[in-house]
């Protein structure tokens, strides 16, 4: 007799994605200093409730290690050098560009959902990087986990993020999120 085991969803092996301007890949231990530099910004630590302020290198290392079990994965979005060819997805974790401009978090929620969240560094805000990075990650998640819905939590007062999520196809579910002051949005 043999045993059939159900496959378990995991975010541990998400491939690198290259877009027109970004190289997006799982954050690695050697990215901790860049992650600290990007994230230790009161505008970011105040908006993302699980980030401590100040955000230290040790905090960055812990955030990166949190992806080891495959339930959560934080992906860095690096600006690609101008004129670099767009190659789609790949398995190499090495980013093509030197500047970490943002982070996209992916989180398995129960048996049927994946939550996304993101933050963009101050100098990169307002340049379309969040839309480019999050839409690329959503495309990957939809292909990889077709049976899961994609959700996000956002404060209604965060006009920029709320608008971006709506532009990406998310709609307010009418439910409160798990985090204080946030609403649950679901991608249609």
Describe this protein's structure.
It is a single chain. The protein is of the alpha+beta class and 188 residues long. The protein contains 5 helices and 9 strands; from the N terminus they run E-E-H-H-H-E-E-E-E-H-E-H-E-E. A hairpin with a 3-residue loop joins strand 5 and strand 6. Helix 1 (32-39) packs across helix 3 (57-65).
Instruction: Indicate the structural class.
Output: alpha+beta
Rg over CA atoms: 16 Å
Q: On the 0-100 scale, what is the average pLDDT? A: 90
Biggest beta-sheet profile? 9 strands, mixed
Relative strand content:
25-35%
Low-pLDDT regions: 89-97
Number of helices: 5
Helix share, percent: 25-40%
Strand order of the largest sheet: 4-1-2-3-5-6-7-9-8
Shape: globular
What is the succession of H and E elements?
Answer: EEHHHEEEEHEHEE
Number of strands: 9
Please report the distance between the alpha carbons of the first and last residues: 43 Å
């Amino acid at each position: 007799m043999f045993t059939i085991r159900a496959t378990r969803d995991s975010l541990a092996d998400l491939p690198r994605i290259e877009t027109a301007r970004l190289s997006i890949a799982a954050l690695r231990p050697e990215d901790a200093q860049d992650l600290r530099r990007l994230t230790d910004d009161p505008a970011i630590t105040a908006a993302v409730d699980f980030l401590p302020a100040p955000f230290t290198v040790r905090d960055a290392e812990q955030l990166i290690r949190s992806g080891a079990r495959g339930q959560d994965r934080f992906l860095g979005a690096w600006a690609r050098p101008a004129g670099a060819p767009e190659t789609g997805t790949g398995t190499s974790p090495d980013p093509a560009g030197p500047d970490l401009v943002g982070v996209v978090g992916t989180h398995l929620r129960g048996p049927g959902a994946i939550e996304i969240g993101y933050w963009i560094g101050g100098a990169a805000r307002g340049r379309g990087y969040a839309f480019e990075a999050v839409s690329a990650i959503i495309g990957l998640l939809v292909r990889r986990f077709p049976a899961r819905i994609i959700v996000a939590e956002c404060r209604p007062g965060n006009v920029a993020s709320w608008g971006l999520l709506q532009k990406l196809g998310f709609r307010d579910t009418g439910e409160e999120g798990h985090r204080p002051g946030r609403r649950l949005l679901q991608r249609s």
